[in-house]
Amino acid sequence: MIIMQFLTCMLIFSFAYFSMSQQTTNMRVMLGEDLVIKCQIGNNEDTSVYWQEDGLRIPFDEMNFAKYKGGRHSVSKTNGEFILEIHQIKIPDSGIYKCKTGRYVLATYNIAVDKVPEPPIIAESIGGRVPVKFEGPITKTQISCHSANGRPAGSIVWRRNGHFIQPKSYDQHVNFTQIGLYDLISTLNIDLTEESNGEEYECIVDHQTYAVPVAVKTAMRLNYMPDSIRIYGYSGQVLGIGESVAMTCVTRGGNPSPTLRWLDHAGNLMERTDSHNVSGYEGNPMERTDSYNVSGSNSRQIGLELVVSQIHANGILTCQAKTAYFDHPVETSLRLIVHFRPEAVSISANPTGRRSRDVLTVSCISSPSNPKTEIYWTREGRIHNASSAETTISPLGGYITESRLRIAKEDNADLRQYICYAVYGDLEIAKSVSGAILLGESNGIPTTPLAEEVRTTKHTNGYNVQLLNLVVLGAIATMACITALLCYCKRKTSRDKLYL
After folding, report:
1. Where does the chain cross the membrane (predicted)?
2. d(CA 147, CA 158)
3. Of 260, 277, 328, 407, which cross-links 302 as Cys (Cβ 3.0–4.6 Å)?
4. Rg of the chain in Å (alpha carbons)
5. Same fold, 121-223 and 230-338
């Protein structure tokens, strides 16, 4: 009876002992550190005790031990303990380790290898600020926080201006790397307004290896185009060749400050006179010397002093403001009003002095002017209608007027003189040519140069005289018609009385 009770007690003790030994011990080890785990075997010298890693037996003898995982594992027995040492532990060393004898498990360890992640970064941050192209009134953007190469993954929360942001405004996901580490990424969705410039955002990373969470901060830098751009100094007055005009282009707002430049009508860069930050105000900058802020943004100006030439007559001057992060600049343009007279009038025959079926086209062309020059013809002192006329823009500025006349030999052209009049305001330039010379015989080539007479006069004769003659003739014709009508009415009245 006593023997049976003893055996029962031993069985219960053994069961309790092995049950307690099989309880799993969780351990976390930093990557690269050494690990030592033990199991109690007492004075048992039984060589059947061994260590097992994830079901794989670890060799005990030194010969095979050196071949196991590069010799970083070592097993020893000391003072009733069966000891496993792992040197410079690596991520693949994570797993379940068991100390066993026969079918009994003496100890179980769950080993996890940790690694401190790299310092968190906000990917879009440059120098502690996130530049955003703000196109208002509400601009949506995202910023991402990265916590890379850690183990385990960890977690991220966000704060704005010191206040925690609701988790619904951001997400986070984990990427598992090929070497067994984790990359944690969290993306925050933001609705920006005009007041968002300078707002501070904080990404806070919590990790198993941190004593306290680690945070990284950034601030919003809103980049936006200038509110307005205007040109001062020219109000549309008429300018002459050689005159000087000073203009100033002013922008209001913009972040960062825009780069200003002047462009001519062909898009070429013009030489500026100055470019600097000035106050943000409405008004003529030439009259202001003080400086103050408008909506937190200074204005900027660039000057241009221009000596007017013929090329400016048809051209447009453009002031352009280019702001970083924006593909297209803002700009404003103006057209200078430049007037100048034609310098000369020329007559040419087509085809180059040769007849074509006894018909010759004669062209009268004015040199450039602005506004355009009017051209008319006379033949033997009477206005003669041109065959065609056109006005073109000169590449040198201003307008060129050309009037063409067709002269036929059967019209007795050799007996007539043709005069081309170029009229510009009170200036009149005339050139004459003889039809006889134009249609002279000698295989169609004029026997003498074109006869020309050039005279510059006030515009008091020529076209005005012809117009006066037409008015007088019209008045005489009108009087004659009225007289005839009165005579007719008088006769009809006398005839009616006679019948009565």
Report:
1. 467-489
2. 13
3. 260
4. 51
5. yes
According to CATH, the superfamily of the domain at 345-461 is Immunoglobulins (2.60.40.10)
Each residue's pLDDT tens digit, 258-292: 899 999 888 888 876 555 554 433 333 333 322 32
| Distance separating alpha carbons of residues 76 and 85, to the nearest angstrom | 9
Can you give the residue ranges of every domain in the chain?
Answer: 17-114, 121-223, 230-338, 345-461, 466-500
Is domain 121-223 in CATH 3.30.70.100, yes or no? no
Fold of domain 230-338:
Immunoglobulin-like (2.60.40)
CATH code of domain 17-114: 2.60.40.10
